[in-house]
Design brief:
With about 450 residues, the chain is an alpha/beta fold. It contains 16 helices and 20 strands. It folds into 3 domains: about 120 residues, HUPs (Rossmann fold), CATH 3.40.50; about 120 residues, Rossmann fold (3-Layer(aba) Sandwich); about 140 residues, Dihydrodipicolinate Reductase, domain 2, CATH 3.30.360.10. Helices cover about 35% and strands about 25% of the residues. A hairpin with a 2-residue loop joins strand 16 and strand 17. The longest helix has 16 residues. The chain starts with a strand and ends with a strand. It binds cytidine-5'-triphosphate. The site of cytidine-5'-triphosphate (CTP) has 17 residues, from helix 1, strand 4 and helix 5.
């Protein structure tokens, strides 16, 4: 019996997949089809696969060509499978020509002609969301670079309010985008906007976009005006529009897994969180203050994310001990007291400290080394060091691609509120930032 094996993602199953499987089966007597796992696809940079693994397997099954289906979970599995199943021929479409020649050592390799004019990527792009860019801050360059890894979105053009800020502090790529001369004209032409304008303008821009029925992805912090934040979220909910805060850590896969691990009780009851985020911005300091404010407004969203996820919103007290330069907080210690737990964070835009995260519980603790907000590695540590374990993940690029993928996903599923960073998290973040501005803070 001649055994054939082939692999693919088989997302949005199309004629090209069907033809390939049919021809693969015709090469022998028994066809094994490897379907990539969701995690494996992400780890090889294929991010917004539309169909989940079970759907993709079902679609392959329905063709009737596969005698056996296996899940492809790691690099190097092809060699293992070929040996394990006694495969005679490995085959794949001609778009991979030459790439799998190394498998000739284990079996015959056949590249089959690819069906022209169709691909999963093409289908995903047919339903692209037209996105307008609002603002020309430097973060935009990183955002646009990351968008190259995401399909299903098309940048229509950009608009930024006129100002006289030194061009060195502005996005280089902004001017390469089609320009709109007013915010209204941009809004009329798109389904969704990404807002990276300075914080003091954001509330108005979000509001205007929602009134016009557009989905919004905004840079963090969402708002430092709590009442306004509540109204914006109410507007979005009533209209069924997506309103999402682009805080990259929230959408990064490893961070979500770490939170789930803690919630599942592996370190017992959480008693303490220490989450620092400090930067020395040097020449960029004034620019950062212009865009997002001082230490609390510009960085507080990061520790608040982990504090709220693990201890909830029902804190008894929050206090700020803050150092100010020219009326701006450049370094702040933020302390939360909960019933039976505490959380503390050092935030700085003009000083440096260790940027790690430690979550302590009654059984052990989680340690995430700096920069914990780009989570890709963490450790579970116990009194008995033999029980310690280490977890490794990949944090791709600048991490902004994760938030764009989530934004597109919830637009597609008409979910307006992301379960990854829900409205309740954003509202409470806004409540803390607002209270900092109006609080009787301890100064030093
Ligand atoms: N394939 C093909 N003809 C096409 C598309 C895919 O023969 N028009 C083959 C691929 O060469 C591969 C198999 O189908 O052997 C599974 O490919 P997959 O990567 O899942 O499909 P694509 O449509 O190429 O997906 P994407 O656009 O996401 O890369």
């Amino acid at each position: 019996m001649k055994k054939i094996i082939t692999y693919g993602t088989y997302d949005l199953f199309h004629q090209g997949h069907y033809n390939l499987l049919k021809r693969a089966k015709a090469l022998g007597d028994y066809l094994i089809v490897g379907v990539t796992s969701d995690y494996f696809d992400k780890s090889r940079g294929k991010f917004n696969v539309h169909d989940d693994l079970m759907t993709r397997i079902e679609n392959v099954k329905k063709t009737g060509f596969a005698d056996q289906i296996v899940v492809e979970e790691y690099f190097g599995q092809k060699i293992d499978d070929i040996k394990k199943y006694g495969v005679d021929i490995f085959t794949v479409g001609s778009d991979w020509k030459g790439y799998f020649d190394y498998l000739n050592e284990y079996c015959k390799v056949v590249y089959l002609e690819r069906t022209k004019g169709i691909s999963s990527t093409k289908i995903r792009n047919e339903h692209s969301v037209r996105l307008g860019i609002v603002g020309n801050e430097m973060i935009l360059d990183r955002f646009l670079n990351e968008m190259k890894y995401v399909s299903g979105v098309e940048v229509a053009g950009a608009y930024a309010p006129k100002d006289d800020v030194d061009p060195r502090y502005k996005s280089v790529q902004f001017m390469q985008l089609p320009q709109y001369d007013s915010y209204d004209s941009l809004l009329n032409d798109v389904e969704a906007v990404y807002i990276n304008a300075p914080l003091k303008m954001r509330d108005d821009m979000i509001e205007k976009a929602l009134i016009k029925g557009k989905h919004v992805l905004t840079e963090f912090p969402f708002s430092i005006d709590y009442q306004r934040a509540c109204r914006l979220i109410k507007n979005a909910s009533e209209k069924g529009l997506v309103l999402m805060e682009g805080l990259k850590t929230a959408y990064c896969p490893a961070f979500g897994k770490m939170v789930s691990l803690v919630k599942s009780g592996r370190i017992g009851k959480v008693l303490s969180i220490e989450a620092n985020f400090t930067q020395i911005l040097g020449n960029d300091l004034q620019n950062q203050i212009r865009i997002a404010g001082g230490s609390v407004a510009s960085l507080g969203a990061y520790p608040l994310l982990v504090i709220f996820k693990l201890l909830g919103y029902d804190y008894k007290k929050v206090e700020f001990i803050t150092h100010q330069e020219n009326g701006i907080d450049t370094m702040t210690r933020m302390n939360f007291i909960y019933d039976g737990a505490i959380a503390t964070s050092l935030l700085a835009i003009n000083a440096k400290a260790e940027g790690s995260l430690t979550i302590s519980g009654t059984k052990g603790y989680v340690y995430v080394p700096a920069p914990w907000w780009k989570t890709e590695y963490y450790e579970l540590r116990y009194e008995d060091i033999n029980k310690n374990s280490k977890f490794f993940y990949k944090f791709e690029g600048e991490g902004l691609r994760y938030e764009v993928i989530e934004f597109l996903r919830i637009i597609e599923h008409n979910q307006n509120n992301s379960l990854v960073l829900p409205f309740s998290d954003i509202i409470n973040e806004s409540r803390v930032l607002d209270s900092f501005i109006n609080a009787d803070n301890v100064k030093f």
